[in-house]
Amino acid sequence: MAERWTAQWKELYEEVVTSGLCTGCSGCVVACPHDVLGYNDGDGVYKPFHLEEELGPENCIHGEKGCTSCTRACPRFRAWEPEIDSFLFGRTRHPDEMAGISKDIILARASEEMVHKMGQDGGLVSAILIWCLEKGYIDAALVSYLEGDKSTWKAVPGVARTRDEVLAAAGSRYTYSATPMAYGDAVAGGAEKIALVGMSCESSVPPVMAVRKAGKVARRFALNIGLLCSKTFDDAIFPELFEAKYGLKKQDMVKMNIKGVFQIWMRNGDYHEVPLKECHAWTRDGCKLCPDFAAEHADISTGGIGAFNDWTLTIVRTDIGREIIMKMLEDGSIYGRPGDDDPGAIALLRKLSIVSRRRWPEWHSIQDPKVGVPPPKPKAKKAAGAGAQPVAK
Ligand SMILES: Cc1cc2nc3c(=O)[nH]c(=O)nc-3n(C[C@H](O)[C@H](O)[C@H](O)COP(=O)(O)OP(=O)(O)OC[C@H]3O[C@@H](n4cnc5c(N)ncnc54)[C@H](O)[C@@H]3O)c2cc1C
Ligand code: SF4
Ligand code: SF4
To answer: Do 202 and 272 fall within a single domain?
Structure first.
């Protein structure tokens, strides 16, 4: 008989929120049926906290009485990876499946020029959302917008219900945006079939809620689109690096991308590159132990690596993901080509997935994310004097 699930906020606080594992995905906040979890997205914190003071920040009176929704909704709590894999795919991943379990890997792009142009890579994500809204697969999508007039570059979760709203949210922001937090607004607006667009960490939220029966919330998630992700940056990177060192003011920026370097386009047409190694000091804390590069639990995972800048590398994982991509290819809403057209992208997908998996901490009693991960190659030793030999790669 399955062991009774008794873990509540007390365990979540100790094992995830304060251990370094918490990504800030907001799954626990959205699932809480008593509305006693808040979410701090100010000053680069991006963490949940307990709103009631009775038992202190580390315990919950509802948890003491038997509520377990938050741990059921957390995609970093205990054996999350094999639990979600088994639920979604009927098996755990093979040790060699570094980028998770998938059906197909293709390159795809929106066929409509406007959508393609406004998208970060191939505009595939926006094309899928528009198509799914039109065909009735979904009635709302949880996406990320820039707040206000966009000049602060503060990424905020929001709901897209129309083509124009989908396009207003297109493109990538490299700071964090807890898109599941827009769930309440979508439901308040009457949405029954909701798509989530989110970073890898966020895209494990719908299936973990479903497999652990976290409550009503999981029922409304009809589609789950993941964005490949190595890390997000603290909001402070804008003033402290881009402006302080390069004189680039965020209110003058119009687009950014990461392709080996941090690329920044300015309103006046200027283009700048900032070396990624200078950016690493602003890596958001919630990303430092994250093992999921490839959004391994999304229906469709999407990324921009590879030789073809204006195509989206597309990993199709589930039946619903395949159904949507196949129908869109058939009716010409998107163009596709085999992933094998870009073997370098497939190799890089594997490599970056390994790099992320290596972050999973050794102190954790559950080591599934690291199963099959090859040890890092020894670095060549610096010549330390006569006779020093470089280590073979
Ligand atoms: C922070 C971040 C890091 C990434 N890192 C990598 C990487 O290392 N390697 C890689 O191959 N690809 C990475 N990607 C994915 C890539 O940038 C594109 O999002 C992806 O290829 C889809 O492109 P598209 O043109 O099809 O999407 P689009 O049609 O442009 O749609 C993008 C969707 O992403 C949503 N979105 C934008 N920013 C955020 C955010 N911060 N949080 C949640 N949702 C957001 C938008 O609301 C929109 O719905 C990253 C994306 C982000 C946001
Ligand atoms: S990882 Fe997500 S669900 Fe888990 S504690 Fe952090 S915010 Fe909550
Ligand atoms: S690296 Fe990306 S997927 Fe992982 S916690 Fe950070 S934002 Fe989430």
So the answer is: no
pLDDT at 1: 64
Does residue 31's CB lie within 6 angstroms of at least one atom of ligand 2? no
What proportion of the chain, given as a percentage, has pLDDT over 90?
92
In a domain, 303, yes or no: yes
Q: Which atom of ligand 3 is nearest to the CA of 356?
A: 1
Give residue 232's pLDDT band: very low, low, confident or very high (50, 70, 90). very high
Expressed in angstroms and rounded, the spacing between residue 157 Cα and the centre of ligand 1 is 13
For residue 53, the model assigns a pLDDT of: 82
Please name the helix (run of DSSP H) or strand (run of DSSP E) that holds residue 72, with its range, or none.
Answer: helix 69-72
- pLDDT tens digits for 61-106? 999 999 999 999 999 999 999 999 999 999 999 999 999 999 999 9
d(CA 230, CA 172): 13
By residue range, what is the domain housing residue 248? 235-282
Which of 67, 93, 119 is at the close of a domain? 93
Spacing, Cα 232 to ligand 3 middle (Å)? 6
Residues 198 and 110 in one domain: yes
- pTM exceeding the 0.85 threshold for the entire prediction: yes
Q: Which atom of ligand 3 is nearest to the CA of 232?
A: 7
Are 118 and 160 in the same domain?
yes
Are 336 and 221 members of one domain?
yes
Atom of ligand 1 nearest to the CA of 232: 1
Q: How many angstroms separate the Cα of 224 from the Cα of each of 61, 197, 208, 320, 391?
A: 33, 6, 12, 10, 44
What is the distance between the terminal CA atoms of the chain, rounded to a whole angstrom?
49
Pairing of strands 155-160, 140-146: antiparallel
CATH code of the domain containing 85: 3.30.70.20
Beta bridge partners of 227: 199, 302
Residues 165 and 210 grouped into a single domain: yes
Residue 369 placed within a domain: no
- Mutation to probe ligand 1, out of 120, 197, 205, 234 (largest number of atoms < 8 A from CB): 120
Cα–ligand 1 centroid distance for 91 (angstroms): 28
Q: 164 C-alpha to center of ligand 2: Å?
A: 31
How many domains does the chain contain in total? 3
Q: What is the pLDDT of residue 43?
A: 84
Residue 50's CB is within 10 A of a number of other CB atoms, namely 24
Is the residue at 366 inside a domain? no
pLDDT tens track for 24-70: 999 999 999 999 999 999 888 999 999 988 888 999 999 999 999 99
The residue from 41, 73, 93 where one domain ends is: 93
Q: Which ligand lies nearest to the CA atom of residue 284 in the structure?
A: 3
